[in-house]
Write a structure and sequence with these properties.
Number of domains: 2
Radius of gyration: 19 Å
Number of helices: 7
Structural class: mainly alpha
Shape: flat
Mean pLDDT: 87
Strand content: under 5%
Largest sheet: none
Distance between the termini: 45 Å
Length: 184
């Protein structure tokens, strides 16, 4: 079935690509959905050409600014790839595999609490998760064009968030106002 002019049809090839990308990402999302953003960006932009790097950066910003789950990005990329059907496929493919595994593993994990291997796993996975999330930030930072003012705003926001417990929504609001005023 070829992609129709409307947004309710998607080719079988694209549907399979969506399911493979997001199903695999679901299984690799150690530390949360943002840990697989670099892989999603690589495949969606460079491999499948569903969107440009700048569009991906824009979708990431929208997904992070919008209320709701932070992995709204998955739905937005799926929509760019295959319309409404693509959005639904991407969302289900991202949630279902990891959800099933988490359910099964959580039951076992609770029964092994305190075991040496349990503690060792937690200590070993934490740095990996942090590295994956940091890589996501670096990938997104590279997808946008930065003026000196934007770089300064990025650096200031990073420093404030690392040094304080300020709610990030205040920084989002401040950045929005700075953009509205034409400062960045």
């Amino acid at each position: 079935m070829a992609r129709a002019t409307g947004c309710l049809a998607v080719s079988l090839g694209t549907a399979l690509q969506i399911c493979l990308l997001f199903g695999t990402a679901s299984l690799l999302s150690v530390g949360g959905g943002n840990s697989v953003v670099p892989e999603i960006q690589l495949r969606a932009v460079d491999t499948y050409h569903w969107l440009s790097a700048a569009q991906f950066g824009d979708l990431f910003a929208i997904a992070q600014a919008a209320p709701g789950p932070s992995m709204l990005l998955v739905t937005l990329v799926g929509y760019k790839a295959g319309g409404v059907v693509g959005a639904l496929l991407a969302t289900v493919a991202m949630i279902l595999p990891a959800g099933v595994i988490v359910h099964v593993v959580a039951r076992f994990w609770q029964s092994s609490s305190g075991a040496r291997w349990h503690v060792a796993m937690e200590r070993g996975l934490a740095p990996v998760a942090i590295g994956l999330v940091a890589a996501s930030g670096a990938i997104i930072a590279r997808t946008t064009e930065h003026s000196p003012a934007q770089l300064a705003l990025t650096a200031a926001a990073t420093l404030v968030l690392c040094a304080t417990k300020l709610n990030p929504l205040f920084l989002v609001a401040a950045a929005g106002i700075a953009g509205w005023l034409g400062l960045v």
